Amino acid sequence: MPHSIPYKLAFHGSRPDLDCLQAFVTTVLGAQRVHEEPGLAACQLPSGSLLELYGPGACYPPHLFEHSPLVASFPVANLKLAVEQAQVAGLHVVAGPEEVCSGLRYCHLQLPGGWVIGLYQEGLAALAVLDNDGA
Hints:
The protein is α+β, with helices and mostly antiparallel strands.
């Protein structure tokens, strides 16, 4: 069986939709609530994947849900290289790459149709990039 790689899915919606989604993922999929603040709830699936549920009152970058209520983010081993390859493939950088917290670097890219996706690098490799190039 292939090893599951954690991913991050960010959903933006109305409070009733997000409450329903949160009940579904905790009850049916076995997710655990790992963070809550006004307008945001985060749940982690048994696979390690993270679901972020953004509702009224949440703070998030304006570009994040401009074209879609869902943003999928994917882990990469080398964020700088992955961003370069994404740009060659036709994606446009809308935010980042930036360190969002110690050991986590993130970048949001926009597809030609407007949808936004995220790429992230975490752990010691992300810190090494900061030490080497300051980016």
